[in-house]
Amino acid sequence: PYLERLSKEGDAGRKKITGYTRYGTIALSLIQGFAIAVGLESMAAPNGQPIVISTLSPWAFRALTVITLTAGTAFLMWVGEQISERGIGNGISLLIFAGIVVGIPGAVINSIRLVQDNVLSPLVLTVVGLLMIVVIFLVIFAETAYRKIPVQYAKRMQGNRMFGGQSSHLPLKINTAGVIPPIFASSILAFPATITGFITIPWVQAVGSQLLPGRMLYNFLFALMIFFFAFFYTAITFNPVKIAEEMKRHGGYIPGIRPGKKTAEYVNLVLSRLTFGGATYLAIVCLVPYILFDLFDIPFFFGGTALLIVVGVGLDLVRQIEAFLLNQNYDGFMKKTKRRQMRSAALRL
């Protein structure tokens, strides 16, 4: 509720939210940096020699590692904010997008080498490639699909003029939460797995081994958290009661549904069904690669979360570039937009 009030305060509220986000990012960077430093100290080469050979004391090495990683995180956060303010698209999302895309050529080359060395069957590689193409089309369809709820506006007199009487629609996305649920779920599941790595108690290590990606317990908890965060994030970002009030204030109503409370209940019902379908789609896209690649014993994979980020950010970037071109030149680069503009011009003639 407090963040919701801040979001309604305009630029001042958004600046406060941005400040809280920065402080939270720095705090998480400090914790994660310390965990990485301790983890590096505990790692050893196959010959038993530690991988960290430093003349510094253990605490000095940990402090230097934490400072370096935190400073790098702060710099990337600043770069992302500059891209958001001065460029096109969300800066942080574009940085994550670039980090994933830059590894694709290396993965392709590694796959070809595995086939050449007879480590991987050409048939399996072909099946995996076709599966990735199908998943990409599924993600594009799900991220661009909408459920349109028809909205009718009643006619009303203002002075000597008649207003209203138009029909419109309320668009609801299948996946309102976007890529947030799998990111949150994977981050939360990574934390206990990291902690159990520092504890030598046998049963704790056994539990930690089951929290590794691809294991049965991990897959179950991952899917459960995806559903939870999908509904949680949708409930935070979309308010059916507010939508119903705005619709009623402007004289709008859904045919067959009474304005006000009934409209809010209907929108909430439709949104809940869409969110369930969207969460199911997210769980399938994120978990199927783990399961299939484990069955085929493939030594590499392109994660479902990374695929969602690449496709989602790519689609958002294309939309924003299209909107920018239409605003500047009144001419976009997408065929659908050009056809729509030509049709409108023909109707005016």
If you had to describe this structure to a student in words, what would you say it looks like?
With 349 residues, the protein is mainly alpha-helical. The protein folds into two domains: 1-87, no CATH class; 100-348, Preprotein translocase SecY subunit. 71% of the residues lie in helices and 7% in strands. The chain is built from 13 helices and five strands. It has helices at residues 2-7, 11-42, 58-86, 91-101, 104-116, 122-144, 180-196, 202-210, 216-237, 240-249, 261-295, 304-329, 335-348, and strands spanning 146-153, 156-158, 161-163, 167-173, 252-253. Strands 4-1-5 form a three-stranded antiparallel β-sheet, sandwiched between helices. It has a two-stranded antiparallel ribbon with strand order 2-3. Strand 2 (156-158) and strand 3 (161-163) form a beta hairpin. Helix 4 packs across helix 12 (304-329), helix 7 (180-196) crosses helix 9 and helix 9 packs antiparallel against helix 11 (261-295).
Provide a compact summary of the structure.
The protein is mainly alpha-helical. It has 13 helices and five strands.
